[in-house]
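hey can u check if this looks right to u? its 141 residues, i copy pasted from the old doc so theres a chance i mangled smth
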Amino acid sequence: MRTVIAVAGWVIALTLAAVLYFRAAPASIDIGAVRQDVRLDPLPMSASSQPLMLLDAVNAYRTAPGWIASSNARIYAGLVDRVWSAPYAVQQPYRHAISVWGGAGAGVSYTYAIFDRWTLGGMVLYSSGSPGMLAGVGYRW
C-alpha cells in the first residue's frame, strides 16, 4: 500500500510539474518614461477650408498599420507620423535555489521558479539510516 501511495504521489507531482513547466513565461520587462519622439505641428489655417484634406488625414490614422520595434534597450512604436519610445530593462530574476539541510538527518533540496510565483523542486534526505526523496510544486508569497 505504501508503494502505491508513493507512486501516486510521484505521478501527481510530475504531472503538475509538466503543466507548470510548459506554461513558463519570459522574464518581466520594466518600461521607463514614454516620450513622443516626433513633434506634431498644428494644422495649417488652410485645413479649415479643405475638408477633404482633413478626411484624408483621419483615414490615414484609421487605416494605416501601426508598427513597433526595439533597438539599444529602447522600444519604439508608431502610427503614421507619430512615434513614441520608452526605455526598457529585462529583469532576470533568480530562478534557482539550492539548500543544504541538517539536523536529525541530512539532505539537499533544489527549487526552480517556473513562472510568476510558482516553483518546482525536489529534495533528497538521509535520515535514520535510509535515504528518501521528495518532489513538490509550490507558491511563493
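The chain has a mean pLDDT of 80.
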